[in-house]
Design a protein that fits this description.
Layout (H helix, E strand, L loop, with lengths): L2 E8 L2 E8 L6 H8 L6 E9 L14 E11 L9 H4 L21 H6 L1 H4 L3 H23 L3 E2 L5 E2 L11 E4 L2 E5 L4 H10 L4 E9 L12 E10 L5 H21 L1 H10 L12 E4 H10 L12 H15 L3 E5 L22 E6 L2 E8 L4 H10 L8 H5 L8 E7 H8 L21
Parallel strand pairs: 2-4, 5-9, 11-12
Antiparallel strand pairs: 1-2, 3-4, 6-8, 7-8, 9-10, 10-15, 12-13, 13-14, 14-15
Helix pairs in contact: 5-7, 5-8, 9-10
Protein name: aspartate--tRNA ligase
Subcellular location: Cytoplasm
Keywords: Aminoacyl-tRNA synthetase, ATP-binding, Cytoplasm, Ligase, Nucleotide-binding, Protein biosynthesis
Length: 435
């Protein structure tokens, strides 16, 4: 015909372009524009005009471009793995289809991830990872202002990061080594033993856990920090409380457009959080569960199911999605966790939760080398693997504490995405190691 219509997209935003045959625009130009495959990269020149009615399919709905020339920079294959229109459809409600859309195509997770470079083009994904970028920036900004120094810890280590078994092992020039499952030992050395006092680490973390769940990855981005303690480990809790609220406030302030683009495809309720953040002891959390008819012993670890139930109880009782608990049983925490001075069965440790799922685990650490040796032996950990770590505390070490945050998990829960793979650029799980 004598006209061609197309939707041109750049990151989050789109505009309708129309190309009509005229004195300035040849019939060949119209045919050329009409024949370009979807997802091709183009340079467009034209006049911005106001349409008679808003263009509902475009984010810039009150303008359109009358094209005078179009140049194809990169032509997309005519056979795309899936259509962008299908990939942008809102999530179906659990157990039912959206009204009237039973026949509409929905793109499955595996197809999306197999072709992630295309899937990332959707406005929702563009927004998710811009929000994730802001989260990392806000984390760094707050800690820099608080006097922290960024540590770049090694990811290749001998033995295992924390004496655990869930590590990826490798041969290091004839010696056994592994990929770090956390920067734990090195951030302690830097903060408590090397005079830096306050350090943070951002970088990849590796877990060889065969967990095919919606909240686990084999590689994720860790946001870790460690700081010295002057009087009480509450100092660390106060910092984490302020840090998280600074991040949440910053995302809500700086990512308004992105939040709405995510909400259009993945509807969610805004995260509710209090100032200051709700704090419970582990025993108080267990008591809340028992009062709701849930079995939970004060000295046994919370199951994933009970964590979620506790999140629901807290939301109903305190109207908050965000809270933390401290004074966990010593038996369920890592060997380097400081025992409670008032109850040897408890520890100076804590977890933070969003929507009933843990986003941070941390504690005051043991800085006495003899107590470290005693605790490592109790865990049947090979002391030779920890020799350098334990020796670092023999030359004077400050009391200290910290914690580790999973970047993707925080994004998943803040946006209530239901699956952590939606918050990972190129997910790595037990069944996926490409692209």
């Amino acid at each position: 015909g004598k006209g061609a219509f197309s939707l041109v997209r750049s990151s989050l935003y789109s505009v309708q372009c129309v190309c009509f045959e005229s004195k300035e625009v040849s019939h060949a130009m119209v045919q050329y524009a009409a024949g370009l495959p979807p997802e091709s990269v183009v340079d467009v020149k034209g006049m911005v005009t106001v349409p008679d009615t808003p263009i509902k399919s475009a984010t810039q709905c009150h303008v359109e471009v009358h094209v005078t020339s179009v140049h194809c920079v990169s032509k997309a294959s005519a056979a795309l793995p899936f259509q962008m229109e299908d990939a942008c459809r809102p999530d179906a409600k659990d157990g039912e289809s959206e009204e009237g859309d039973e026949a509409l195509v929905r793109v499955g997770q595996d197809i999306r991830l197999d072709n992630r470079w295309i899937d990332l083009r959707t406005p929702a994904n563009q927004s998710i990872f811009r929000i994730e970028s802001w989260l990392g920036k806000l984390f760094r900004d707050y800690l820099h202002e608080a006097g922290f120094v960024e540590l770049h810890s090694p990811k290749l280590i001998g033995g295992s990061s924390e004496g655990g078994a869930d590590v990826f092992t490798l041969d290091y020039f004839g010696k056994p080594a592994c990929l770090a499952m956390s920067p734990q030992l090195h951030k302690q050395m830097a903060a408590a033993c090397s005079g830096f006092e306050k350090v943070f680490v951002t970088g990849p973390v590796f877990r060889a856990e065969d967990s095919n769940t919606r909240r686990h990855l084999c590689e994720f981005t860790g946001l870790d920090l460690e700081m010295t303690i002057v009087e009480h480990y509450d100092e660390v809790l106060v910092l984490f409380d302020e840090l998280f609220r600074y991040i949440f406030d910053g995302i809500n302030k700086h990512c308004k457009d992105e939040l709405e683009r995510v909400r259009e495809q993945h509807p969610f309720e805004d995260l509710k959080y209090l100032t200051p953040t709700l704090r419970l002891t582990y025993a108080e959390g267990c008591q809340l569960l028992r009062e709701a008819g849930v079995e939970q012993d004060d000295y046994e670890d919370l199951s994933t199911e009970n964590e979620k139930k506790l999140g629901d109880i807290v939301k109903e009782k305190y109207d908050t999605d965000f809270f933390f608990m401290d004074q966990y049983p010593l038996s369920v925490r890592p060997f380097y966790t400081m025992p409670s001075p008032t109850n040897p069965k408890l520890s100076n440790s804590y977890d933070f939760f969003v929507r009933g799922q843990e986003i941070l685990s941390g504690a005051q650490r043991i800085h006495d080398p003899e107590l470290l040796v005693e605790r490592a032996k109790a865990w049947d950990i090979d002391l030779e693997d920890l020799k350098g770590y334990i020796d670092s505390f023999r030359n004077g070490a400050l009391p200290h504490g910290g914690g580790g945050i999973g970047l993707e998990r925080v994004v998943m829960l803040f946006l209530d995405l239901k699956n952590i793979r939606k918050a990972s650029w190129f997910p790595r799980d037990p069944k996926r190691i490409s692209p």
